[in-house]
Structure formats: structure tokens, C-alpha cells
Specification:
21% helix; Naphthalene 1,2-dioxygenase Alpha Subunit, Chain A, domain 1; 6 helices; Rieske Iron-sulfur Protein; alpha+beta; 4-stranded antiparallel beta sheet; 7-stranded antiparallel beta sheet
Length: 354
């Protein structure tokens, strides 16, 4: 059920050191470590000798030494030392995975290494832009990763789950919605015209009491677990139309503010997920401050923690009984169809290669 020929976020850079880190990605046990030149290496987390987890071993220079019998593996996964003998047994290797360090996250390619291209990593340039203040973190969530994608593509839940932060009644009852599909993305565009801003938005900008704003939420899913959001509000942002723009990369209107958010959901197993997210804010004409960056981070952290609780309860209740769909689910359904298509294509290619 997992797309394998794709980049997944696997760790925050500070998590990986010369002490091996064990992490399961797409049901595969992997060990990460840093070498003397600070490069990051990813191996399958099992010694080719007697299957001892290599994450229990030690980093010696640029080598990872197995804790059980002391076999040492270089950065290419080749065994280069077996204590007590001068020859290396045939096949004494462990699988390695391509890794990349981009947007202050560590990424791993889970499929065919020959297909790994860092240009395919989803774009999140706001992470390092001077006029955007960004901060994020990592959650470990006990649910199917697709439930998180569903959640992010249907923001009508903000009115009910996040009423104290980024939600209000208008986002569920008054939003106009368009679903946009392509061969590689599923996008929901939502507009709420001429309504009061939600609590977090009001804290960010401080509009005069009674100010009505046009609020946009552009949410794009792309392969394999990336959900990018461009959300915000400003008086008159829809320019008098019933529905405004649907582009995720537009400038922020004057007298308003916006978030750019990248959520990356990386499956650990069928029912557990590594959830990485980063949130950036921009208010035209105002400098980026640490205080404001922390404030918006804390607001989003609170909101996502509320989601986290929802995911866990959903998973506890999930079974084979049918569910209904509403108008809000169109983009989530499209995303799931894309996942099914990519998995089927990879499985078909694997069968054809046998």
C-alpha cells in the first residue's frame, strides 16, 4: 500500500549523529548515522551475518560496526572487516538508501536507487526566505498515514476541532470549494468571503474590531505524502468575486497575512506514521520576529496536537465497515486514487521485471 519510488522525510537533521538511529519507514527497518565528514548514511537495520540490528552497533570513523560479532560496513554498505579472518564472505553487504538534506529535513528514497533525483523533492522555499518566519516539528502518530492526508485536504473540521485557534463556523458553513485534479496532484481551493477572522489570524494581524476578511485555503497533495498549504486572509482578498485565486504560489495581499505550510506524512507501518510539518508566516510590511514566529508556531502546534488526538481515535475505530462521503471529501478521494494508481503501477512494473 506504500509508494516506494519517492522521497520521504525520515528525520530532522539534529536527530542523526554518530550514535545510530533506528527508524522504520514503509515497513522497512532502517538505521541512520553520520560519518566523520558529517554525511548521513542509511542502511537496512540488520546485519547480513546473523540479523542483529545494526542500530545497536557503533560508528567507528566512516564505518558501522555490528554489536554482535564486530563486522564493519563502509558507507556503501560493504563489509570491509570480519574479526578473526582476512577474507570477506561473498554477499557480505547491507542495503543502502539514497538520502538528501533539504529544507532542514532529511529525506530518504525508498525505491530503486537509480531513479532517485533530488529535484523531485517537493518544493518548500519559504523555509529559508528572509521575509517568511518558519518553524516546525515532528509528531509520531498512531494511525494510517492516509487519514492525515484526508484531514489536511478537508479543512471543514477546523470549525469543530480548532475553534480556539485557526477555526470558526464560517470555514465549515460558508466556504466555497473547488477541487482541482491532475496526473500528479489533488488540490482543494476554499474561499470564505466577508467573514470575521479566526482567533489565530486576529492575533497575528490585529485588525480593528469588526473587520471582515476574505479567507483562502489552498491545499495541494503530491507524491507520496506531501501536503502543501497556502492559507491566509485579508480584507477584499477575493477582489469582489465570489471565489478568489486557486494558485498556491501567489504573493500575500496587502493588509493581510498568510501561512505556507508543508506537512509530510511518512508511513512507518499500515497503522503508524511519522508526521513532519513546518509552518511559515508572512505579514506584508512587517519584519519577521522571533516572538511572532514562536507565537504562530505555538498556535499551529496546538491545532495539530488536536488533530493528533483525532487521528488516534479514528484509527482505534477503523474497520472494514463502509463510510460515507460528503462534498468536503472530493480532494481526499482524489488523493487516495492517486496513491492507489502509483502503488499499482509499481507493483505491475515489479511483476513485469520478474
Amino acid at each position: 500500500m506504500f509508494v516506494m519510488n519517492a522521497w520521504y522525510v525520515c528525520a530532522e537533521p539534529e536527530e542523526i549523529s554518530d550514535t545510530p538511529l533506528a527508524r522504520t519507514i514503509c515497513n522497512e527497518k532502517i538505521v541512520f548515522f553520520r560519518t566523520e565528514d558529517d554525511s548521513i548514511v542509511a542502511f537496512e537495520d540488520r546485519c547480513c551475518h546473523r540479523r542483529m540490528p545494526l542500530s545497536k552497533g557503533n560508528v567507528i570513523g566512516d564505518r558501522l560496526q555490528c554489536f554482535y560479532h564486530g563486522l564493519e560496513f563502509n558507507k556503501s554498505g560493504e563489509c570491509v572487516h570480519v574479526p578473526g579472518q582476512s577474507t570477506i564472505p561473498p554477499g557480505a553487504t547491507v542495503r543502502t538508501y539514497p538520502v538528501a538534506n533539504k529544507y532542514n529535513w532529511v529525506w530518504i528514497w525508498m525505491g530503486d536507487p537509480a531513479l532517485a533525483n533530488e529535484d523531485d523533492i517537493p518544493a518548500y522555499p519559504w523555509k529559508t526566505m528572509d521575509d517568511w518566519g518558519d518553524k516546525g516539528t515532528y509528531f509520531y502518530v498512531k494511525c494510517d498515514y492516509r487519514l492525515i492526508i484526508d484531514n489536511l485536504l478537508d479543512l471543514s473540521h477546523l470549525a469543530f476541532v480548532h475553534g480556539s485557534t485557526i477555526g470558526n463556523a464560517a470555514v465549515a458553513e460558508a466556504a466555497k470549494i473547488k477541487t482541482l485534479r491532475s496526473e500528479s496532484t489533488a488540490t482543494t481551493a476554499r474561499w470564505t468571503i466577508g467573514k470575521e477572522p479566526p482567533p489565530t489570524y486576529q492575533k497575528m494581524v490585529g485588525w480593528p474590531e469588526g473587520t471582515l476578511v476574505d479567507r483562502w485555503q489552498i491545499i495541494e497533495y503530491s507524491k507520496p505524502g506531501a501536503v502543501r498549504l497556502f492559507t491566509g486572509a485579508a480584507p477584499g482578498a477575493a477582489k469582489g468575486e465570489d471565489f478568489g485565486f486557486t494558485d498556491i504560489d501567489l504573493p500575500v495581499p496587502e493588509n493581510g497575512f498568510a501561512f505556507h505550510n508543508l506537512n509530510f506524512v511518512t508511513p512507518e507501518t499500515e497503522t503508524t506514521t511519522h508526521y513532519f510539518w513546518s509552518n511559515a508566516y508572512h505579514i506584508p510590511g512587517q519584519p519577521i520576529t522571533e516572538e511572532m514566529t514562536d507565537m504562530q508556531y505555538n498556535q499551529i502546534f496546538t491545532a495539530f496536537h488536536q488533530d493528533w488526538e483525532v487521528f488516534n481515535k479514528q484509527q482505534e475505530n477503523w474497520d472494514d465497515r463502509p463510510v460515507i462521503d460528503t462534498i468536503q471529501d472530493a480532494s481526499a478521494i482524489a488523493a487516495r486514487k492517486l496513491i492507489d494508481k502509483w502503488v499499482a503501477e509499481e507493483q505491475g512494473e515489479a511483476i513485469a521485471a520478474e
